[in-house]
C-alpha cells in the first residue's frame, strides 16, 4: 500500500516573497524514487531547497511523516531534518578531510557515538557505495563518480529515510552515470530508502524513476505527473510527451 512519507501542500516556492512556482501539491511515497523534472531555471532546485529546510517557502507546507517542517522550530525541526539526507550537485565534501572523516563528521557532530563506533559505521556506509578501499583518500583524489558516491554515503550517515539528490549525474560520463543509477536503485530496493531527485537526464529518469512531476515555468506549476514511461508514451499529455521524446518543434505549434 502506498504510504506518503513526504507531502507537499499548496507550496508557493520562491525568494523574498515572490513565487516562481505556485500552489504545488504532491505526495512522495515511502521507498519510491521520485524525480522532479522541468526546463532549465523553472525552479526545481528552489523547490528542493524548500523541501530540505534550506530556504523558507513563500507559503505552504512540507510534511515529513505528517509533521510540518516549515512550521517546526527548535528541537522539533532538528528531529525532522534528521530524517532526511542531502547530496548536492558538487558533493560539498570537506576537501581537507579524508573520505572516511567526511562520513564520520555528521555522526560525531550530531550523535553521542564514540570515534571508534563512528568509524565502524562510516566504513559500513562506504561499503554500501563501494568506496571502502578509497576511504583514506581526500575528495580531490577521487574520480567524479566516486565523489558522488561519497556524497551519497555522507548523506546516509545518520540513517535518514529520505535522500535528496540534486542533479546526481551532472558532469558524469554516460557509463558512470548508469552505474550511479544502479546504485540508487539498489539502495532504494535493499534499504527501502526514499529518493527525491532533481535531474535532466532522460535515460536516467526512464531507468530509475517510479514517479515524476514536471514543473513548467510559464504555468508556474506542475504540468504532468506519473510514471515516466507512461508520460513518454502518452501524447495526450503533450508537454510531458515532448519532454520525454525531445520534441521541441511541437512546442512552437499553437
Ligand atoms: N538566491 C536566489 N535569489 C533569487 N532568485 C533566485 C535565487 N536562486 C535562483 N533564483 C532564480 O529562481 C529561478 C529558478 O531557479 P532554480 O535554480 O530553482 O531552477 P532550476 O529549475 O533548478 O534550474 P536548472 O535546471 O537550470 O538548475 C531562476 O530564475 C533563478 O534565477
TrEMBL record:
Keywords: ATP-binding, Nucleotide-binding, Transport. It comes from the Bacteria. Residues 6-244 form the ABC transporter domain. GO terms for molecular function: ATP binding; ATP hydrolysis activity. Pfam families: ABC_tran. PANTHER family: PROTEIN TRIGALACTOSYLDIACYLGLYCEROL 3, CHLOROPLASTIC (PTHR43023). This is Organic solvents ABC-type transport system ATPase component. It comes from Desulfotignum phosphitoxidans DSM 13687.
Amino acid at each position: 500500500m502506498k504510504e506518503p512519507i513526504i507531502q507537499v501542500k499548496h507550496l508557493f516556492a520562491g525568494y523574498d516573497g515572490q513565487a516562481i512556482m505556485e500552489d504545488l501539491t504532491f505526495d512522495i511515497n515511502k521507498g519510491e524514487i521520485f524525480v522532479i523534472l522541468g526546463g532549465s531555471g523553472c525552479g526545481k532546485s528552489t523547490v528542493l531547497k524548500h523541501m530540505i529546510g534550506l530556504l523558507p517557502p513563500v507559503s505552504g507546507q512540507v510534511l515529513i511523516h505528517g509533521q510540518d517542517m516549515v512550521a517546526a522550530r527548535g528541537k522539533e525541526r532538528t528531529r525532522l531534518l534528521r530524517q532526511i539526507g542531502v547530496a548536492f550537485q558538487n558533493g560539498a565534501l570537506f576537501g581537507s578531510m579524508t573520505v572516511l572523516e567526511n562520513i564520520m563528521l555528521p555522526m560525531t557532530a550530531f550523535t553521542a557515538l564514540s570515534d571508534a563506533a563512528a568509524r565502524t559505521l562510516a566504513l559500513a556506509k562506504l561499503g554500501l557505495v563501494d568506496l571502502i578501499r578509497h576511504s583514506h583518500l581526500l575528495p580531490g583524489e577521487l574520480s567524479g563518480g566516486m565523489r558522488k558516491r561519497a556524497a551519497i554515503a555522507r548523506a546516509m550517515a545518520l540513517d535518514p529515510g529520505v535522500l535528496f539528490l540534486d542533479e546526481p549525474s551532472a558532469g558524469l560520463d554516460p557509463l558512470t552515470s548508469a552505474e550511479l543509477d544502479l546504485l540508487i536503485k539498489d539502495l532504494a530496493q535493499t534499504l527501502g530508502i526514499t529518493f527525491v531527485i532533481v535531474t535532466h537526464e532522460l535515460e536516467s529518469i526512464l531507468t530509475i524513476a517510479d514517479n515524476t512531476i514536471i514543473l513548467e515555468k510559464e504555468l508556474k506549476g506542475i504540468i504532468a505527473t506519473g510514471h515516466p514511461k507512461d508520460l513518454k508514451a502518452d501524447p495526450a499529455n503533450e508537454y510531458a510527451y515532448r519532454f520525454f521524446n525531445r520534441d521541441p518543434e511541437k512546442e512552437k505549434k499553437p
